[in-house]
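re the bet — no i am not wrong, look at it urself. input seq straight from the record:
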Amino acid sequence: MNASSQQSLPAHDVSSVRYMSAKQLAERWATNTMAVYRQIESGRLSVLRLGRSVRIPIEEVERFEAKNTFTRERWVD
């Protein structure tokens, strides 16, 4: 790819983005890493892939938790 065909990406402030590993998220959810990877593979949890590793943005974790946390009222609907 030559310089003229490269597109510049918009600037992104990565200092405000925090990430968790699958192991850290499994500990947070008191489960195993395979349960986390199942959520990733199903597309329900978005991640940043770095080679064979994945990093999950904290904002994505919080979104997932909010969407999947049920109160009694929500459970019976």
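see?? The helical segments are 22-28, 33-41, 58-68, 72-76. told u. also The first strand starts at residue 19 and ends at 21. so pay up
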